[in-house]
């Protein structure tokens, strides 16, 4: 079989697992911050940074993404200390895209100054909806006005590369409510928007309610209508629908997430973080104290697994077809030692083209989702599992 990519990651993900509260739909590795040993966690994280660059020295880091949890629960001194550690251990490219997730209402001017000073140049705010009753219903503790204020603060602090997340398909959400939220989001005039359909995940309050038939979700047709509205409204406002759930002005696409969609390697640090390098995936220990104990001694791995070329090829197709530009023979060959896209997946591709879910791209001989394929993405991705 052809070799997997042998280059060291140029993307870095760091997990800060602390939150102000736990949202009803969230199954991320996150813990309410009150009473947590945050400083000890930052010590352990710095030790993991040191051990990581010893084990696999980076050349240059093009993208950094700090996710959570809510990284912005760190105090300004903790934030400064954390960001200084990142710069100390990882050689950041001059034009690095350095993203931090934030919750509306957790970014005052002092914190934003610490973030900017520390090298953050892109912020992604979890807005979810501009309907206060819906925010309460999904367990968010911010109000719609906090989103507006947080964006204003970020702009005043000099940030220009800003994004917000919105959700659709929420309990009792109507198309009209979604339209109102999208219009309010567009009034903020941001370069990037992420729009996600609610997924009911195990180990969440919503899952328990769903099991008891107490979660009034919109009907499937209503949810499809919401998604179609989003595509039409944002495209009409000049945003490029560059990935199934993401819209950007040209040049403001998320470079970090594009690494994932191209199935390229990345460093993953912090409790519960995933990483992918030199044909190996790892998952870190999840609990805060177990992570602190482990990362104080060695790389805090929960599990490691080698990825076969066959599995990596399937992953490449599943994530690559999320991008509206799709996958190309050239991209496939580059990642898999010259292997032919059609030699490996010709039968599946032909069937999906026949079903009207994929189409050929004239200029690069690649494959991408049709408009119908966008709505039925899971059927397409499932063909490559």
From TrEMBL:
UniProt keyword Iron present: yes
PROSITE patterns: RADICAL_SAM (PS51918)
Family: Belongs to the anaerobic coproporphyrinogen-III oxidase family. HemW subfamily.
Primary site of residence: cytoplasm
Cited SMART domains: Elp3
Protein known as: Heme chaperone HemW
Biological process according to GO: porphyrin-containing compound biosynthetic process
InterPro entries referenced in this protein's UniProt entry, alphabetically: Aldolase_TIM, Coproporphyrinogen-III_oxidase, Elp3/MiaA/NifB-like_rSAM, HemN_C, HemW-like, rSAM, rSAM_sf
Purpose: Probably acts as a heme chaperone, transferring heme to an unknown acceptor. Binds one molecule of heme per monomer, possibly covalently. Binds 1 [4Fe-4S] cluster. The cluster is coordinated with 3 cysteines and an exchangeable S-adenosyl-L-methionine.
Subcellular localization: Cytoplasm
